[in-house]
Amino acid sequence: MSSSAGSREEAAAATLAVKATGLSKTYMGEAAPVPVFRNLEFTLAEGVFAAVMGPSGVGKSTLLHLLGGIDRPDSGRVEIFGVSLEDLGPRERARFRNERIGFVFQFHHLLPEFTAEENVAFPHRIAGVSSREARERAAALLERVGLADRRLHMSRALSGGEQQRVAIARALARSPSLLLADEPTGNLDAESARSVFDLLAELHRERGMTTVLVTHNPDLAKRCDKIFEMSREAILPATGFSG
Amino acid sequence: MSFETSIALRYLVASRRRAHVALISTISMLGLAVGVAALVISLSLLSGFQDRIRAQMAQRTPHLRVSPTRGAVLPDPERVHQALSSLAGVADVEPAIEGRGWASGSGVEATLPVRFRNAAAGELPEATEGDPPPARVSAAVATRTRSAAGDLLRLTSARTRLSPVGPIPVAIVFRVAAVRRVAALEKSPDVEVPEDAARLLSGVSTGARAFEAHLRDPNRAETAARGVALVLGPDYRVETWRQLNAPLSFALRLEKSVIFATVALVILVAALNIVSNIALTVVEKKRDLGVLTSLGATPGSLARIYLTLGAIIGALGTGLGLIVGVSASLLLDRYEVVRLPSDVYLLTHVPFAVHPREVALVAAFALATAVAAAVLPARAAARLAPGEAVRLSR
Lengths: 243, 394
Hints:
The complex is a heterodimer.
Chain A: H1 5-11, E1 16-28, E2 33-45, E3 49-53, H2 60-67, E4 75-80, E5 83-84, H3 90-100, E6 101-104, H4 116-127, H5 131-144, H6 160-171, E7 178-182, H7 190-207, E8 210-214, H8 218-221, E9 226-230, E10 235-237
Parallel strand pairs in A: 3-8, 3-9, 6-7, 7-8
Antiparallel strand pairs in A: 1-2, 1-4, 4-5, 9-10
Chain B: H1 3-12, H2 19-60, E1 64-68, H3 77-85, E2 90-96, E3 98-105, E4 112-118, E5 134-138, H4 139-144, E6 152-163, E7 166-180, E8 191-193, H5 195-202, E9 210-215, H6 221-232, E10 236-240, H7 241-244, H8 246-284, H9 286-294, H10 299-334, H11 356-382, H12 386-392
Parallel strand pairs in B: 4-8, 5-7
Antiparallel strand pairs in B: 1-9, 1-10, 2-9, 3-4, 3-6, 5-8, 6-7
Helix pairs in contact in B: 1-10, 2-8, 2-10, 2-11, 8-10, 8-11, 9-12, 10-11
């Protein structure tokens, strides 16, 4: 996939999917403030499958939360497909997230009281789609991720790999333009991790999305269009990866 | 069903892993149910007594009374009589001849200040030849003058008449025909006497101080009073039986309000339980809130989940409380479970009356309290930082 990265990036250069400028974030710790990163710059062209790597604690998850608008930077701006998240009110921001952005978390974060199908239907329900139609759409998506026979199972009754597939289906329910995946394979065995990554890659291709994948796995990262190395000071295209 | 409602319902039907939350929810619900049931039963008990008192009030008090705005006697009694008699649904129209005097029983030197008036037609037995005219006295007068049915009672008027030895008070001796029990604050005369005796004692030889009418439906008194007032004009005061008994009606309303406020404290205590229950759920489901935000839920939606949870707990608790409270009240009244000693009370048992309006008021109060209890935790849920909720909930 990385062999075609250059040409794809050139084609999409006119449209930036992600543009983050001067991002800084500090968490308020119990004893003292904990700075995460300062003055980060990050751009990504539309349609690119990018991997973000880096040591633990440099703020990879925080970066995804800022890009997805579920957290706010202390300073700096985030633009997604030309829309500045800072300029949106709480309702517009929520609608933007619902329609344009999909999240996959490391620990799947499915709602345990609900079935796989109900979990996948939530983005539609939040958008105001009727319960019946939302469940029909969710069932179709679960079939696509290979879980048609597990759709009525409670989410906590599924295996780790299955739960992550359900989480991917939920993230893609509203056909987002940007998928943010935070170590989606980090909690899985090698076989499940490969299977989940294959699914992500397929769906990325099928849907023409822009995907940002945070991972610690260099083998999976190599299969992405582009790899970024993140530190507390900068996110730079990675060196030392062949592919 | 909105997604907020489906999440609230699912949170309520807790899984085994959330048994402690299910237990607290059940306790909150039962607490509210107990409060609602207690309030319904208390109000039914009061209503049972008050309905009896009001029924007696409507029976004993004239439904309409027309008196002069100025002066002691009606300027045109015929006109007043005609205006009242021509009312639709009027049962009877009687003149009121009344005054003040002193009552004394046989063998008791002390006299008691009393209000007397003429009894309504047919209320007193016919006087036998040579016997003193009959009178009906209130229980208080009977006790204070040590009189019982069949005893003699002397009634001395405040009016005097001229005699060869100068002005002397007008006095008549009556035979007590009946003793009647009067509710506290009930506006009724102490002694009721035949019309001719009342005229003699009060000095109103013709006409009347007022005219009183009974209606077939006492609840129409206000409408009828407005009609009569329009016909008679400003020289006459038209009062209904509710206005005549205003102090008693006020006391009854006050009594009910105080009981409502006191017993409603149980519901408020139950509401505190709901606050802690929902706050616990907010803390426990913090991660879900972060995830729902990442899926596009607004802070308002997150708040609605918990407001709905409060409303569901409130509805279940209120529903259960209403069923228990209304059933208990109906059964207690139907089977006369709480008996009363008849020598002390006018009633043989404690009556319970369920008024739909009061039940609706209790239900609305309990529901509103339950939803209000959910407001604080719901606002906390809406203010939650979603990124932090997801980050810290691994």
